[in-house]
Automatic annotation (TrEMBL):
The keyword Nucleotide-binding does not apply. SUPFAM superfamilies: Cytochrome c oxidase subunit III-like. It is found in: Cell membrane. It comes from Paenibacillus plantarum. This is Cytochrome (Ubi)quinol oxidase subunit III. The lineage of its organism: Bacteria, Bacillati, Bacillota, Bacilli, Bacillales. Pfam families: COX3.
Amino acid sequence: MSSHHTGALPANPETATLEGKNKVLGFWLFLGAEVVLFGCLFATYIALRNSAPDGPTAEELFKLKTVGWSTFILLTSSLTSVFAIIAMHRQKVGQLLAWLAVTVLFGLSFLGMEIYEFYEYVHEGHKFTTSAFSTSFYTLVGFHGAHVAFGVCWITLLIFQGLKKGLTVVTAPKFYVASLYWHFIDLVWVFIFTVVYLMGKVGH
């Protein structure tokens, strides 16, 4: 009877091996460093956000409807990456890769909206070097956008690897760690949405 389950994986394949455990632990340490980095960018932005003598202010620039849609898209992508990991734990490779593909599509949609948003701001006189406010804004939000772009590329490569190698104790930690990374950049965006956009609109 058990012959059908010879290829079955442990309940938590991402930490089934020492290498897998080390990958996950190492990744948490990496995220710790990223938190410090983003913390510095947030602190710089908060210090400089009212320094806009030569250009439009946050209140004049930001359109919460557009940014609200971007936020909705990115938060939904966090949910689809959760579904991917649930599928992984159920050892349903097809579902895992399908949910990851949906996550990538949401990530690309978010990036498209952010590029459009930056394009509009530049046309309204909000260039990178316009003011201390604009420089700190583009550095923080652009740095996050670069993380999203990296995540999209990373997950896309993992989808191809999954198609080729399937789900094993070697590939599972990679899927799991990529999902953690995606949750991290979504969480950072919630802070950006609150600190940059909401506080910028509501007042100083």
